[in-house]
Amino acid sequence: MILKLVTTTLLAAACCASLNFNVARADDGKHGGDIDGTENLDVDLMMTPTASAPAGSSIELSLKAEDEDGATDAELKLDARGLTAGIYSVSVTLKSGGSTVSLGSFNVNSQGEGEIEFVTTPEDSDEVPFPANFNPLDIATVSVANGSGVVLFTADLTNVKTAAGMTLNATVNGQPGPSIPNASGTATLTASSSKRGPKGQVQLIGTGFPIRTSLTTFVNNVIVSKKARTDNNGAFNFNFGPKGKTSTVAAATTLFQITSITLKDSAGNVLMTFSF
Hints:
The chain has about 280 residues and is mainly beta. It is built from one helix and 19 strands. It folds into two domains: about 45-160, Immunoglobulin-like (Sandwich), CATH 2.60.40; about 165-275. A hairpin with a 5-residue loop joins strand 9 (about 140-145) and strand 10 (about 150-155).
C-alpha cells in the first residue's frame, strides 16, 4: 500500500511538472517571455510631436531587444533636442492588456538637449534599469511628458508604417502535440517595415509527422489560407508571407503581430505549436 501510494504520488508530480512546462511554453499573447529559441526586435524612429511640443523639437527613439530561451537583454534609448530645460518622464503601454508602465525620467539642459537609456542590466551610472519583470518586447507605445504631465511626444511601435526602420527576426522550436511526442519542428520569422506595410515571411520545417497528411496553419488562432502537406517521410517545409493591400498573413494580423503558430490535421488535432 505504501509503495503504491508513493508511486501514485510520484506519477502525479511528474504529470504536474509536465503540465507546468507545457503551460510555460504556451502562447501568452505577446512577444518574448519563455520562448524556446531566439527573438530579436530592432526599432528606430522619430517620435511624433503633439500640439504641445515646442516648435522644432524632436525625440529620436531606438529599441533593441533580444530574447534567448526566456532570457531578455534590451535597451531603449531616447535622444531629445529642442526642448525646454527641465525634467521629462517616460511611460509605455503594453501590447498585452494595454496597461501603462512608468519607466523613469531624464533631464534636458539649457541647450535643449537630453537623453536617457533604459537597459536590462545597467553597466554605468547613465543607464536606468527597466522595472522588475518588465518585457521590452511587449512595448506597444512610448510617451514623453513634461514636468506638468503634458504629453509632448508619442511613438506607436505597433504601426510599422511610421517607423524609419523596424525589423523582427525569430527562430523558435515547436512543441509537438500529444499524438506525436517525438516530432520536431522549427519556425523562422523575418519581418521588416516599409511604407506599404511589413515585408518578410515565415518558414516552417518539421519531421516525425504522420505521412501524407494535410496541415492547416493557424496564426494567433486564426486560419491561414496557405495549404501544406507532409511527404512520404512525414516531413514538411513550407513558407507564407503577407498578402494583399493589408499586408497581413491572417485576418488583421501582420508579421510583427505573430505570437503563435499552430499546425493541425484535417480532424482538428493539434500536431505542433510555435510560440514567439
